[in-house]
Design a protein that fits this description.
The chain is of the alpha/beta class. It is built from ten helices and ten strands.
């Protein structure tokens, strides 16, 4: 573990034995004149779950939006499987293998569960997607029971399941998850995190933004702590859980 901003702690023998999938180097992203990311450097290896933790306004969601093409950095590089994607449009990144389940779920409330899943596969031939629909419904059995319901009639937990399932329909190799447990009852939080771990075990690399730092670090291989647009701490998740600063600031310990 290191407190040096942007330092990498990936080592041989980590879960990311398949090599580097994603790298951000000195990334600066703005909202107008607001300097949201101030030189973020981080890495995600093939097969990893990497989590970003930090307070509200730290830059976590901005980081995911920068990776998925919803925002463009003014400076720095974003590399996905060896290709610089900093200026690539969002829909092209979906085709390249980056899926994004955004904060707030953002499902299509007037479409059915099935139609939402089909929309997640908009870059694909619809004739080929049935195995992936079956996979999502196996991961989230509740959605199978709601398959013909409009998305807006689902509970908050069911909508979160649908948002993740919709992102999986594009066959992502890298899945970006933004606050998947936000607003959920504790029992549903446990279910969602168990499913995230299962998705990873099935071969999908995951970059997870999560306010529930303890849950995130429990399932993650590595973590980054963001503070006002900077990486201030990074290391194996098991080390971050034990770190006194992290425990006081993000795990609710005095």
């Amino acid at each position: 573990m290191t407190a040096v901003a942007g330092a990498s702690t990936r080592t041989t023998g980590d879960a990311a034995s398949g090599g580097l999938m994603l790298a951000l180097s000195d990334v600066h992203t703005y909202y107008g004149n607001i300097h949201a990311l101030q030189g973020v450097t981080m890495e995600v290896g093939h097969g990893e779950i990497v989590t970003l933790i930090g307070a509200n306004g730290a830059g976590k969601t901005t980081t995911l939006k920068t990776i998925s093409g919803l925002l463009s950095p003014r400076k720095g590089t974003v590399t996905f499987e060896g290709t610089d994607i900093a200026k690539t449009q969002a829909h092209q990144l979906v085709k390249m293998g980056i899926g994004h389940a955004p904060e707030g779920r953002r499902i299509f409330s007037r479409l059915t569960v099935l139609e939402n899943l089909q929309m997640g596969a908009f870059t694909r031939d619809l004739k080929t997607i049935q195995p992936d629909i079956d996979r999502v419904l196996t991961l989230f059995p509740r959605l199978r029971e709601r398959i013909t319901q409009q998305g807006g009639t689902l509970s908050g937990g069911e909508q979160q399941m649908l948002a993740i399932g919709r992102a999986l329909m594009s066959e992502p190799r890298l899945l970006l998850l933004d606050e998947p447990s936000l607003g959920l009852a504790p029992i549903l939080v446990q279910q969602v995190f168990a499913t995230i771990k299962e998705i990873n075990e099935q071969g999908t690399t995951i970059l997870l933004v999560e306010q529930n730092a303890l849950q995130a670090l429990t399932i993650a291989h590595r973590g980054y702590v963001l503070q006002t647009g900077n990486v201030v701490l990074t290391g194996p998740a098991s080390d971050l859980i034990k770190n006194e600063t992290v425990r006081k600031a993000y795990l609710g310990e005095n």
